[in-house]
Design brief:
By secondary structure, the protein is of the alpha+beta class. The protein contains seven helices and eleven strands. The protein has two domains: 121 residues, Trna Endonuclease, Chain: A, domain 1; 136 residues, no CATH class. The chain has a six-stranded mixed beta sheet with strand order 8-7-6-9-10-11, with helices on one face. The chain has a five-stranded mixed beta sheet with strand order 1-2-3-4-5. A hairpin with a 4-residue loop joins strand 9 and strand 10. It binds zinc ion.
């Protein structure tokens, strides 16, 4: 008998189990949060590792934000909405996640097209980051999203060719569908190197490390970490969360004679928009 029941519960759809436990927990949390949390611990095995982590994150989000955002628990009806709340004076649908890498902009678009606003609440080490994903729709093609990206330019020189010890960075808005592009802002920062000089320096360091038998340097990983740091810094500076960052790159089309063209290549982009941006765009910023 017990074995049969175990088998029956095992074969249930995990999403169904999740929704059932979620309803029970959130019905209780309004009455007594401490009891709700002991129940959550009790469901740990039933939910499995991913389900447990997901529900625990939703509970943590509710506890931390229900007063500030006036949260209402949403029914799970496939609309990527865990809660509804008021953020910056406007009603938002909120999707809580422990891993933003699994989230795709396309899953929010059906309701965004009808005017719904969304935030993704990303759980990271006990705290939440409320990510805005309400990229405007393009005025030209109406279907693409206007995505904010940054482009790192090479070192500035004066007209005599002397280094100015600074680089410029562009805020470039790109339509994900028709490719409409706008340089929305340009700033100058000392020592924020472009990717070409970064790769040159990293490759030099890599060869040196090899020659001297030191710890090997992973050029790709180092460049990726640099891209993410620069993206965070420039997001603050431009006052908008950048979804991608890149720089000038020479794309070779003919390896025999090195023929190619100048382009902007993205070195890092959020998984959220990975189906919405190309890896590179054929813009010649040589004189930019
Ligand atoms: Zn467009």
């Amino acid at each position: 008998m017990a074995a049969k029941m175990w088998k029956a519960s095992k074969s249930r759809n995990p999403a169904e189990v999740y929704n059932e436990k979620r309803r029970i927990i959130f019905a209780q949390i309004q009455k007594d949060p401490a009891v709700a949390k002991t129940w959550l611990e009790g469901y740990r095995d039933t939910l499995g590792p991913a389900g447990y982590a997901g529900l625990k994150a939703e509970v943590a989000f509710f506890e931390q934000y229900h007063k500030d955002l006036n949260l209402v628990v949403a029914a799970d009806i496939g609309d990527a909405t865990d809660f509804v709340g008021v953020v910056d004076g406007a009603m938002h649908r909120i999707d809580v996640t422990t891993n933003v890498a699994f989230k795709r902009l396309a899953s929010y678009e059906p309701l965004q097209l009808k005017g719904a606003l969304y935030k993704v609440a990303v759980f990271d080490q006990g705290r939440f980051d409320l990510v805005d994903i309400n990229f405007p729709f393009c005025e030209h093609c109406k279907s693409g999203r206007i995505l904010p990206t940054a482009v790192l330019l090479e070192e500035n020189h004066n007209r005599h060719g002397d280094s100015q010890w600074s680089n410029d960075q562009l805020l470039v808005n790109i339509c994900s569908a028709c490719g409409e592009v706008e340089v929305a802002d340009r700033i100058t920062t000392p020592f924020l190197y472009d990717f070409q000089s970064l790769y040159r320096d990293l490759n030099e360091a890599k060869h040196e490390a090899e020659d001297f038998g030191e710890t090997p340097i992973d050029v790709r990983a180092e460049a990726g970490a640099y891209a993410r740091r620069a993206s965070r810094y420039l997001s603050d500076f431009f006052g908008t969360r950048l979804v991608a960052i890149g720089g000038k790159s020479y794309e070779i089309t003919n390896p025999r004679d090195g023929d190619g063209y100048w382009a902007v290549r993205f070195e890092d982009q959020l998984p959220l928009v990975q189906e919405h941006l190309q890896d590179n765009y054929p813009w010649d910023l040589t004189h930019g």
